[in-house]
Amino acid sequence: MLKIFKITAIIEGISALLLFFFAMPMKYIYNDPFYVKHIGMVHGILFTLYIVLATILKFKEKWDFKKYFIICIASIPPFGTFYIERKYLKNV
C-alpha cells in the first residue's frame, strides 16, 4: 500500500506541475482552455486518490495526526508531494 501511495504522490506532483506550468499558461496566454480541462481533471482525480490513500495509511500505518496533516497539506503547493516522498516515503 505504501508503494502505491508513493507512486500516486509522484504522479500527483507531476500533474500539478503540468497544470500550473503548462496548462494554465496555455489557457491564459494563448486562450486555449483544452489543456486545463483535461490535465485539471486528471490532477483532481489524483489529488483525491492521494488524500484517500493518505487517510487509509494513517490508520494502517498508525501515523500520528501531525504526520498525516503534513502529508495532506503538502499535496497543495507545487513540489509538496516530492518533499513528502523524499522525507517520509524514501525507504519504501
Task: Report on the architecture of this protein.
The protein is mostly helical and 92 residues long. It has one domain. It is built from four helices and no strands. The chain has helices at 2-30, 34-60, 65-73, 80-88. The protein is elongated, with a radius of gyration of 14 Å. The N and C termini lie close together (10 Å).
Summarize the structure.
The protein is mostly helical and 92 residues long. The chain has helices at 2-30, 34-60, 65-73, 80-88.
Characterize the largest beta sheet: strand count, sense, and whether it forms a barrel: none
Instruction: Indicate the low-confidence ranges by residue numbers.
Output: none
User: Helical residue percent?
Assistant: over 70%
- Count of domains: 1
Secondary-structure element order, N to C: HHHH
Helix segment tally = 4
Q: Kindly estimate the percentage of residues that lie in beta strands according to DSSP.
A: under 5%
Distance from N terminus to C terminus (CA atoms, Å) equals: 10 Å
Structural category = mainly alpha
Number of DSSP E strands = 0
Radius of gyration over C-alpha positions, nearest whole angstrom: 14 Å
User: Shape, please?
Assistant: elongated
Overall mean confidence score, pLDDT = 93
